[in-house]
Amino acid sequence: MPGDLLSDPPSAIVAGPALFSDALAAQGVTVTRVDWQPPAAAGDLAVLWCDEVDAANRTALDRLLAAQPVLVDVRPAIDVVPGLTRDTVLHAGPPIAWELMSGPLRGAVAGALVYEGLASTKEDAERLAASGAIRFDPCHHHQAVGPMAGVMTASMPVFVVENRAAGNRAYSTINEGLGKVLRYGAYAPEVLDRLRWFRDGLGPALGEAIRSTGGVDLRALIGQAVQMGDECHNRNRAASALLIKALAPSIAALDVPAAERARMLAFAGGNEHFFLNASMAACKAALDAAHGVPHSTLVTAMARNGTDFGIRVSGLGDRWFTGPAQTPRGLFFPGFGPEHANPDIGDSAITETAGLGGFAMAGAPAVVQFVGGTPADALRFTRLMYEITSGESAAYRLPTLDFRGTPTGIDVRLVAQTGILPQINTGMAHREAGIGQIGAGLVNPPRVCFDLALAALTEDAR
Amino acid sequence: MSLGFTVRHSTYFDSVALMRVAEQARALAGVLEVAAVMGTPANRAMLAEAGMLPPDAPPTAASDLLVVVSASTEEAVNAALARVNDLLAARRDATPEGRTVAVGSDGVAPRTLASAARGDGRANVAVIAVPGPHAALEAHQALSAGLHVFLFSDGVSLDDEIALKRRARARGLFVMGPECGTAIIRGVGLGFANRVRRGAIGVVGASGTGIQEVTTLVHRLGAGVSHAIGTGGRDLLAAVGGITTLQALERLGADDETRVVVLVSKPSSREVADRVLAAASGLGKPVVACLLGYDGVVPTGVRAAATLEEAAGVAVALARGAPVAGGLEGASLAAVAVAGNASTRGGRARARQGNQPSGAIRGLYSGGTLCDEARRLVGGTAHRFVDFGSDEYTRGRPHPIIDPSRRHAAILEAADDPEVGVLLLDLVLGDCAHPDPAGALDPVLTQAYDRGRRAGRELKVVAHVVGSDDDVQNLARQEDTLRKRGVTVCASNRVAALTARRLIEGREAAPGGREAAPGDRDAG
């Protein structure tokens, strides 16, 4: 509610020469001076600063901030993921045809087709994929998200996350750990064996354990992990430990052989990204609740398929605004370098979209070392993200910023005006299928995604 | 004793943070104990042991925050619960009061008004002085953030102005501007404003320098200003319909501190002026209107003033409760009082110069309304007036109140012009103005006199300084600098204009000239 002009002493914000702020400061007035620069994007931004858009953004942001994601189950994807069929392969990022898929995505698709028994060999799988008999669709079109290649098929067990504030659900596969894994395009027998164990052993057991806890409150868990040095995208050590801690009693109580229970705990405990997929589904559940508010300029998804980077905007329906995916800057495992890196891939930027990942880097200074940064850089990254977000999380608070909530709710208007692009923390895949992760680092979306979204929004506003 | 609690579901807080908050809430009067804990079985057991677990407390999960307060009264319980809630919500790295924050400690300054407003939280007004093509965006963004807007920028389209003002009005906000030079809110000057005493006179003005003239004259006359609200020069055009002026009148009408309202307009739509005057007459407090170019009938309850000086004088008389009976008697009394401050040394300087000036007056102004008023008072066709604050001179360069160099050049040109006998100038002091306009003018005048003398002419200079002794430039010092250079310094723009006219008409030294030219009253 705006204040009356004459009732309170002026407290000012100045967009203009220092002359104006200095004069106010000399009068003892609290004044903040904007580091004003002309808008970075061409286009009529002013039409988007209106009551209609403001109200829509408030609604969308309220839904995002109020989300209460709870991990409630693990179930076979075919049983729970809407619109999934036996011949569907879901993948990360915006829609893409088989011919245009990058190496790691093709590898993951081939591996998944063999895993599902739809093909017998990689070559067979590639023929099938190219034949048109397989339906490819983004995870995002099915309330789902997947890291890296993000491939999800019918028999894979998936985390079921329920947003108890809005009642919607989101899904993601179980994280396979590092090394040779399907999400990086690896399709070796050991990769498929692990997936079969997920399907037959780990998945059903986790589901039962989770159900017996009555659900794991991910909002509270992430809030705690953020205060333990995680940003829940590229660093999930604390969150993974907290999730295992929450589930361990129930797993221990399962009616399965002790060796199997030990294997489950050892697998989960040995995978420092065990929580990542749950984090992503939590973010997806929150953002889906904020999607579809007419006129809202809030970004509700950022995702990459290894070829294109795409964003979706709450008020612009199911459209994607895409541009070429960039290659991350960062550190490489021994034997690998930038020349091996695939362009940016994965739905995991859903965490940044929800105010985690690169946006929460101030709380996870360890991550900034991927680009040779210092803790001060980590603070700066997060501070910058406040410039392009319209809210602050009430649940995820940063100790290093005196428990300020993480910057949440990317506003296309602010990105367009400032030219500041969302900061994403990410893993890097080898550009050839089958090799896997080769490093991790930082990346931004291509600006054109936001330019296209801005054009659509201004058209919508006229 | 009373026990109360709240439960906040699914929100993690670090226990140290919770202990700190509890300690702060414990300091409230009547509060005996405050517990803020996550709702784990162990924490509940601890509360139970301490007699702090209310019997009606619902089951809680480890992820639920449980706050329990024990206090002497129910009010104290509620106050402590509210305090805990506030403390948990508070941003502790917010800007401390009274500090200018241009850049955060880590070097990231807010890049947009939206971000700055969110970061500050207390801000209530945006001062916008960005290039015209971008100003509407900034102003709309400020309105979105719930801020009043002081829009200094020019070059904003009329359509944008209308849209901004309508939107602001609907949200209970003011858009002062575009091209708003001056406002004073609760004693705080925005833009070009002078340090004037606080008092009972409220001002609404379409003209920045008009507001400055009225407020500084009120100050000189010993009275003070409650608030001055600028509207921007086009507010009274038919298309805009006086939105901001009407809002400002209504607000000042409701303001307890304001006992008299002065309305300073620019040329306006007749229909809008009528509407504004009708609103003014219904305010329930006296309104003095200085409406340039208005020839309609002024309604009861509104006193028309022909000049800014008269408006200030009448307002001061009304605020003091002095009789302002019939006609402009009170105003002219006030005018004399103002004129009494006019230069005496300037008079001596003129007397020394001897020769009567001839030719025309060249009025070189930095204030548009002052320029218009002087032009009107001087009359005739031989004289030329230039407003260096108008668009054609300020496009792409600072306002002459900030940077007088353009006018300085014009002064030297005028000195070379055989037609010119008297230079008529305004100097505007105050916040955001040049730090020493008289000092900057001084060498230019020396040169101007020289050039005139070499051409065998005696150039005369008449000036009025808009300002107060509390302005950083200091009115007395500025006037003194001018007098030392032989300038006739007048205490108001009206007096300056009339003094220039008398000089040209050659009646300066005439004993009977006093009445018509009060600026010369104490000369010699």
Fraction of helical residues of chain B:
25-40%
Overall form of chain A: globular
Regions of chain A with pLDDT < 50 over 5+ consecutive residues? none
| Class derived from helix and strand content of chain B | alpha/beta
The number of distinct β-strands of chain A equals 17
Low-pLDDT regions of chain B = 93-105, 325-355, 507-524
Strand order of the largest sheet of chain A: 7-6-3-8
- Quick one: overall form of chain B? elongated
Determine the number of helices of chain B (DSSP H or I, runs of at least 4 residues).
Answer: 18
Summed over residues and divided by their number, the pLDDT of chain B gives a mean of: 86
| Rg of chain B (CA only) | 30 Å
Our measurement of the CA-to-CA distance between the termini of chain B, rounded to an integer number of angstroms, reads 83 Å
Strands across the major sheet of chain B, in which order?
11-10-12-13-14
Largest interface: A-B, 72 and 83 residues
What oligomerization state is this entry in? heterodimer
C-alpha Rg of chain A, in Å? 22 Å
The number of E-state strands of chain B comes to 19
Instruction: Give a short account of the largest sheet of chain B.
Output: 5 strands, parallel
Could you tell me the strand content of chain B as a percent range?
15-25%
Please give a structural write-up.
- Chain A has helices at residues 18-26, 51-66, 77-80, 103-115, 122-131, 189-213, 218-226, 237-252, 258-270, 276-290, 350-353, 375-386, 412-418, 447-461; strands spanning 12-15, 31-33, 69-76, 88-91, 135-138, 157-163, 169-173, 216-217, 299-305, 308-313, 321-324, 329-332, 345-346, 389-398, 404-410, 424-429, 437-443.
- Chain A is of the alpha+beta class.
- Chain B has 524 residues and is an alpha/beta fold.
- In chain B, the strands form five sheets. Chain B has a five-stranded parallel beta sheet, with helices on both faces. In chain B, strands 16-15-17-18-19 form a five-stranded parallel beta sheet, sandwiched between helices.
- In chain B, β17, α16 and β18 (460-466) form a beta-alpha-beta unit.
- In chain B, α5 (132-144) runs parallel beside α6 and α16 (437-454) runs parallel beside α17.
- The longest helix of chain B has 18 residues, at 437-454.
- At the A-B interface, β1, α1, β2, α7 and α12 of A face β4, α4, β5, α5 and α6 of B.
- β2 (31-33) of chain A pairs parallel with β4 (100-101) of chain B, so a sheet runs across the interface.
